[in-house]
Amino acid sequence: EDQVTQSPEALRLQEGESSSLNCSYTVSGLRGLFWYRQDPGKGPEFLFTLYSAGEEKEKERLKATLTKKESFLHITAPKPEDSATYLCAVRPGNTPLVFGKGTRLSVIA
Amino acid sequence: DTGVSQNPRHKITKRGQNVTFRCDPISEHNRLYWYRQTLGQGPEFLTYFQNEAQLEKSRLLSDRFSAERPKGSFSTLEIQRTEQGDSAMYLCASSLPPQETQYFGPGTRLLVL
């Protein structure tokens, strides 16, 4: 069964304290790994798509990396406005997305 | 590009009533997806369309749920005889193959009393 596990469930950082979120997956025929940001009461906002091991993408303070079994979302010098739930999803073959439960990030000023 | 829109944004209903939600995808996107999300969980797939054809339905989609996309543009999701367990955020997303990325709307939050 295709599965996505995100850790930690919740993370509390001081402003400027860099850290990483983990997304481990077991899927057959990966056709993309996706990171989304979700603010309370809103729909997920697309951040990155990664397709193959070794691929990296960056956007402002965020950097996503992919290996054959997991992905990391690195947050460098976070600010309070980075507080949100970060969702990881995979596309196994020609099927819709399978999401993890997310990591709730709080950045304290 | 106005993004994916969903209406209504919030719906409160009594158990046993029928409700209908609407999703307008990004204009050139021919794939449209419905997901359900409960508190503390990631979105769970319900069904998806390519143009007007409904290509896949999750086993989560009981026979009280029906979705349509009559002209390959907007879509509606209807829940008949609502139950308290149907309370959730209902999310719509769209994409344009061959790109795999799905773009989500703001969601419709349903509360069944």
Structure description:
The complex is a heterodimer of chains A (109) and B (113). Chain A has 109 residues and is mainly β. Chain A is built from no helices and 11 strands. In chain B, a hairpin with a 2-residue loop joins β5 and β6.
Annotation keywords:
heterodimer, A: 109 residues, mainly beta, 6-stranded mixed β-sheet, 5-stranded antiparallel β-sheet, 0% helix, 60% strand, globular, B: 113 residues, 7-stranded mixed β-sheet, 4-stranded antiparallel β-sheet, 11 strands, 50% strand
- How many strands in all of chain A? 11
Strand composition percent of chain B = over 45%
H-E order of chain B: EEEEEEEEEEE
Q: Overall pLDDT of chain A, averaged? A: 95
Helix content of chain A: under 10%
- Strand fraction of chain A: over 45%
User: What is the CA-atom radius of gyration of chain B, in angstroms?
Assistant: 13 Å
CA-based shape of chain A = globular
- Outline type of chain B: globular
Based on helices, strands and strand pairing, what is the structural class of chain A?
Answer: mainly beta
Distance separating the two termini of chain B: 37 Å
Mean pLDDT over the full residue set of chain B: 94
Tell me the helix content of chain B: under 10%
Spatial separation of the terminal alpha carbons of chain A = 41 Å
Succession of helices and strands of chain A: EEEEEEEEEEE
- Total helical elements of chain B: 0
